[in-house]
Structures are given as structure tokens and as C-alpha cells.
Amino acid sequence: MTMPFVMPRPVGSPPATWAAYGLTTLTVLPLVWRRRAPVAVLLAVLAAGAVSLMIVQAEAGPVTVRTDPQKAEAAFDAISEAGRDAMAQLRRMLGVLRENEVQGAPRAPQPDLGDLPTLIDRVRTGGLEVSCRTEGAARALTPATGATVFRVVQEALTNVVKHAGATRASVRLHHGPGALEITVTDDGRGPAPAGGPGRTGGHGLTGIRERAAAHGGTASTGAGPGGKGFEVRVVLPVPAGTSGSSPGT
């Protein structure tokens, strides 16, 4: 097997082999997996989140179509929108996995704070009451940080839909000195007791922690206020800068 990713070679040169670099399958595969494992986790979170929301909305559709046709139509629209969003995200993530991706190729724009109202409306169509509020003076975020805030909220709400059995959830964005705090709470089942069955969150909470760590931030999960429900809390460092706009509700 050749090793084209180790060192560029002139056109016409014989291909370099693993043996030429003193490498074997046992030494190379862990390196490849270590590079791609985080992407695989994000793909799993992305697919599971989108499909979970689509299932909830699809199951509610036949019931509401007889009693509230307008709400049923909104649910089916949300299913379509969730599917398109998931496809766009999958294409973006698969582009990262392509070994010969063209450098500088245009990609679809990443979501940001301005897309949160659409996300929340989509979740509401599944029957979950969701509120959103912003505290403090909002600052402009880098595209990467804005996308991370969106994905954290998306994955936290998906976790509520999949695991909480909740009726209400709240999203809070607090702009403090040098940091943005994201808190998502619900009134459903709390965290699983030690060694017992209950709510764990699966890959979604793992993805949230990895996103926070990638920006030098922190993520914590546990029981909500007063020991009720579940809470996801993420703190991302945000340097002081110009003021930005806040998402609607």
C-alpha cells in the first residue's frame, strides 16, 4: 500500500510504501482513526439529531391533521426543513473526510445566532414548548463561535426531545465579561442515578463537550434548578469587541 499523505513526491517517481517509512498497518490505522474519530462522532450526532426531530414531528402529523390542519402542515414543513438541513450538514462533514478535497472550494454557510429562532420554531412544531432569552450586551461572534453556539443549542434540544420526556425547555444566552454562557434546561427526567437506568444523552452530550473544548470552553450537565429536570451548561470564551444582535424567540 502506498503512503501519498506522508511526503509529496515528484510526478513519475515510484510510490512510497509503508515499509519505506518503517510503518505497518498496526501503526498507521490508529493514526488515521485518531484523526477521523471526532468527525465520526459529529456525523452520528448530526444524523441522530435530525432524524429524532423528524420522527417526533412525523408521529404528531397524523394526529394533528384531523384536529388542527394548519399545525399539521407546519409539522410537515419542519420535517422537510430538518431533512434539508441534515443533508447540507452531512455534505459538509463528508467533505472534511475526503482525502483529496480541493483546497479553497466554496462551502455552504455555517449557521449562527441568527438561525436560532428558526431552529426553535422547528422544535416547537413537535409539541415541545421552548423559550429563549438573551441577557447582557451581545457581542459579535466569529463565524466558528456562532456556529458552535447554534450546534450546542441544537444538540441540547435534540437531547430533550429524545430522552427527557419533557413538556417545556428553555434556552438562555448570557453575555458576561469575556464569555458567553449557554444554558438549556427542561422539566423532564433528570440525569440517570449512578449505576441505574435513566437519561444519559449518548453521543449528543459528547459532541457538546467536544465543541466547547475546541473553543477553549467548558461544558457541564446535570440536574436542573432545584434538582428537577436536566440542564446543559456551556461557557465559551468571547473576547471583548463590537456589539452584536440577539436572537429572537
What tags apply to this protein structure?
five-stranded mixed beta sheet; alpha+beta; 249 residues; globular; 47% helix; Heat Shock Protein 90
Report on the structure:
The protein is of the alpha+beta class. Helix content is 47%, strand content 15%. It has two domains: 73 residues; 125 residues, Histidine kinase-like ATPase, C-terminal domain (Heat Shock Protein 90, 2-Layer Sandwich), CATH 3.30.565. A five-stranded mixed beta sheet has the order 1-2-3-5-4, covered by helices on one side. It is globular and about 50 Å long.
Quick structural gist:
The chain has 249 residues and is an alpha+beta fold. The protein has helices at residues 25-67, 69-97, 116-124, 143-164, 202-214, and strands spanning 129-135, 168-176, 179-186, 218-223, 230-237.
Shape: globular
Give the helices and strands as they follow along the chain.
HHHEHEEHEE
Find the structural class using helix and strand composition. Answer: alpha+beta
CATH architecture annotation name of the largest domain: 2-Layer Sandwich
DSSP helical segment count: 5
Please estimate the helix content.
Answer: 40-55%
Rounded to the nearest angstrom, the distance between the terminal CA atoms is 55 Å
CATH homologous superfamily classification of the largest domain: Histidine kinase-like ATPase, C-terminal domain
Taking all residues together, what is the mean pLDDT? 74
CATH topology of the largest domain: the name is Heat Shock Protein 90
Q: What is the number of domains?
A: 2
CATH C-level category of the largest domain: Alpha Beta
Radius of gyration over all CA atoms, rounded:
21 Å
